[in-house]
Amino acid sequence: NTLRGAFADKFLIGTALNVRQVESKDKALQALVRDQFSAVVAENCMKAEVVQPKEGVFKFEDGDRLCDLAEKNGQVVTGHCLIWHSQAPKWFFKDKEGKTVSRDVLIQRMKDHIYKVVGHYKGRVKGWDVVNEAIEGNGEFRKSPFYKIIGPDFIRLAFQFAHEADPDVELYYNDYGMDSPRKREAVVRLVKDLKAHGCRIDAVGMQSHLGLNTSLGEYEKSMEAFIGAGVKVLVTEMELSVLPWPKGNYGAAIETNFAYKDEMDPYKDGLPEEKAKEQNDFYIKLFDIYLRHSKDIGRVTFWGVSDGDSWKNNFPIHGRTDYPLAFDRDLKPKPFVKTVIEMA
Ligand code: XIL
Predict the structure, then answer these.
(1) Fewer Cβ in 10 A, N or C end of the chain?
(2) Would the pLDDT of 257 be above 90?
(3) pTM of the full predicted structure?
(4) How many CB atoms neighbour CB 198 within 10 A?
(5) How far apart are CA 6 and CA 336, in angstroms?
(6) Whose CA is nearest to atom 16 of ligand 1?
(7) CA-to-CA distance for 2 and 328, rounded, in angstroms?
(8) Could you tell me the distance, in angstroms and rounded to a whole number, from the CA of residue 159 to the centre of ligand 1?
(9) How many CA atoms lie within 13 A of 243 on its CB side?
(10) Taking the domains of the chain in order of start, what are their residue ranges?
(11) Quick count: other Cβ atoms within 10 Å of Cβ 23?
(12) CB neighbourhood size of 205 (10 A)
């Protein structure tokens, strides 16, 4: 009676792990990770700023330990991620004098990074999030340093390099906010463009950092559009926040206005029953969507194991109390877990 067991013949059930969890001596946590999940992904330790903090200096130890644990547990590992504007090392984009590098230099750095990292994890990682978050909610390309220095074909180049580095590894485009129709159309265009250029792309990753007001109708439409473009869908970073999204210049507002902070952290003493129920019902609707599309979905990954570990406690405001995941702060499953196991 576990998520892993119940969904075994449908899709992988994954979790993101941080170094703390990989190394944890907590037996209950380790058993839960082993029993409930058939896939794992590094929450941070395979990102470029961690893996190549200085040019030519590579740090693979934490990612290696994650792979060791996964192999012991018989779990599939996803590589996250190769090319992303965030958590990329600053040196990537600058020469020795601190000037912005040329297009050729950045392409070479992308190639070196991808070859080295994909090469290192060859045989241990099933697929890579090759490019992460390159499209904005309005459907335009994000004006990241990769885009500004190389142009939109940085995406195609990244997919080519990853495929050259390991012809057997699966390749994914990964992004958030996929319920936006403009973004949906742009991602479909991107998939078709990559295919038209002969690039391998196996799946679109729908991160699925969701809130209770996310439109499940639009979300499902996007899923169907990606499937229609001829790729699998992966749900790569799912969680369901119950906290309000701040408006305006909230960073400054939080510093100076404690009342506002309270308003933004309404459940610090516990989650009221009705909110818990609202979240529970939402999760059941989500899994209903996943089950209806299960033949085109490769994996559904929660972005963390238990509420206490979720990045949402610190994003977009630091130091709140969120309840976004499947297991609570005592590692107890939420009621929906039992329900979706029965639905599977
Ligand atoms: C987040 C991690 O969960 C945090 O620990 C870290 O501080 C910032 O990044 N999109 C992604 C993930 O692709 O890598 C991000 O993970 C969440 C948003």
Answers:
(1) N
(2) no
(3) 0.97
(4) 10
(5) 13
(6) 43
(7) 16
(8) 21
(9) 31
(10) 3-343
(11) 12
(12) 29
Q: Which two tokens stand for residue 69?
A: 């644990």
Whether 62 and 100 have beta carbons less than 8 Å apart is answered as no
Q: Computed over its alpha carbons, how large is the radius of gyration of the chain?
A: 20
Ligand 1 pocket check for 222: Cβ under 6 Å: no
Dist CA 232 CA 224 (whole Å): 10
Q: Which two tokens stand for residue 190?
A: 């991107």
Q: Which atom of ligand 1 is nearest to the CA of 311?
A: 3
Atom of ligand 1 nearest to the CA of 174: 13
By annotation, the residues acting in catalysis are 133, 237
pLDDT number for residue 247: 79
Q: Categorize the per-residue pLDDT at 318 as very low, low, confident or very high, splitting at 50, 70 and 90.
A: confident
Residue whose CA lies nearest to ligand 1 atom number 4: 311
Q: Judge if the beta carbon of residue 207 lies within 6 A of ligand 1.
A: yes
**Cα–Cα distance measured from residue 206 to residue 321, given in angstroms and rounded to the nearest whole number:** 25
Nearest to 243 by CA among 265, 227, 260, 225: 265
pLDDT at 252 over 90: no
CB 179 within 8 A of CB 218: yes
CA dist 80 → 128, 143, 146, 172, 340 (Å)? 6, 21, 18, 10, 27
If you measure from the C-alpha of residue 110 to the centroid of ligand 1, how many angstroms do you get, rounded to a whole number? 21
Task: Please tell me the distance between residue 124's alpha carbon and the centre of ligand 1 in angstroms.
Answer: 22
Average pLDDT over residues 281-288: 98
State how far the Cα of 218 lies from the Cα of 215, in Å rounded to an integer.
5
Structure tokens at 336: 């929906």
3-343 CATH pick, 3.10.20.30, 3.40.140.10, 3.20.20.80, 3.40.50.2000: 3.20.20.80
Per-residue burial over 42-77, b if 16 or more Cβ lie within 10 Å, else e, is bbbbbbbebbbeeeeeeebebbebbbebbeebebbb
Amino acid at 280: N
